[in-house]
Amino acid sequence: MKCPKCHKEVERGSLYCPNCLTEIPWVKEYDSVETQLEKKRQTMEAEQETGKLTQLGERLRVNKKRILFFTVLGAVFIGSFCYRQLHTFSALYTKAEKYYGRGAYDRAMRAVEEALEKEPGNLSANLLFASLLKQEGDAESAILVLQPMVKEYPDSVEAASMLVEYLAAEHRTGEIRIFLKNVINPEILDACRDYICEKPSLSIESGIYTSPQTLELFADYDKIYYTLDDSMPNQNSTLYAGPIAIGEGTTKLNAFGINKNNISSDILSAEYVIVLKSPDKPKITPEAGIYRKKTKIKIEVPDGCRAYYAFDNENPTTASTEYKTPVNLPQGSHTFYAILVAPNGKKSPVASCEYYLEY
């Protein structure tokens, strides 16, 4: 405050002016115009600062919201990405394999089913699925899974081997035989060789023969069943136990084998026609006629044949006298009859000579 007389500044609270000792009347000061303008300026500046702070706060609040939004959005994106990565076919199939290896078959089944929803035709996943079905005791469903796989992947040794194994477990041996007949991949055939049953082989081929034959059957398994009357053999037919004698006439053989896995072979068929040749009638010496001295009758016997003879009996048989050495011609009038019998049992026509011996 200033002294009202000398206008010197007086400290607040002083009762007298230190310059002129004039009593100081302490009353409320009124701001001058300058003071009011200054205060207004200060107020405006303060308001501006406050406004700036408010705007900054608003901006900070907006930025916080944005940060929160983008944070949440990033978390959702990362979570979605991680979920997708964990639920790709590869991840699901790997999980199924791990569970299967640990014996957690229920979890493995759920994982492989999810994997197959991603890639229904994947070979590896379908093979694992079939294995799990078989593990559950549902071999029939496992076979239904494998059948389209062997068609779609004809060179898959694993798929073919599994199918054959599961069919064998269900005793569907006929289907195994049909399936393997249509396989041309040597690796598959080698892998499934225990389930392949080849036809038996023969010691003599079909054909026409002029002597009785002895037939043998060969195979790398023990059970061969056969018939000789052209009927189809089965397991109630004759079990092969040794060489089969094939005699005169027509013999129609049908045979098949069964290996250790109860797989049957295709039918082996063969036909044998045995035509036994009869020997020519024997040659007798001397010629028919009248003789005056002792005479011996001879029969020319070919190698392998036997000769039988009789006097005055026009039908000699194998029950007649067998010719060994020349025969003495008896006195009187006689007819000599003879036949030959070949090794095949066929008889020759009868040969005869009329003799008259008189001393």
Structure in words:
With 359 residues, the chain is an alpha+beta fold. Helix content is 38%, strand content 21%. The strands form 5 sheets. A 5-stranded mixed sheet has the order 2-9-8-5-6, with no helix packed on it. The N and C termini lie far apart (210 Å). The model has no long low-confidence stretch (mean pLDDT 87).
Content of β-strand: 15-25%
Average pLDDT over all residues: 87
Number of strands: 17
What is the first-to-last residue Cα distance?
210 Å
Strand order of the largest sheet: 2-9-8-5-6
List the helices and strands and how they pair.
Elements: H1 33-86, H2 89-102, H3 105-118, H4 123-135, H5 139-152, H6 157-169, H7 173-181, H8 186-191, E1 201-202, E2 207-209, E3 213-215, E4 217-218, E5 223-227, E6 238-239, E7 244-246, E8 249-258, E9 268-274, E10 283-285, E11 289-291, E12 296-300, E13 306-311, E14 321-322, E15 327-328, E16 332-341, E17 351-357
Parallel strand pairs: 2-9, 11-17
Antiparallel strand pairs: 1-4, 3-7, 5-6, 5-8, 8-9, 10-12, 12-15, 13-14, 13-16, 16-17
Helix pairs in contact: 2-3, 3-4, 4-5, 5-6
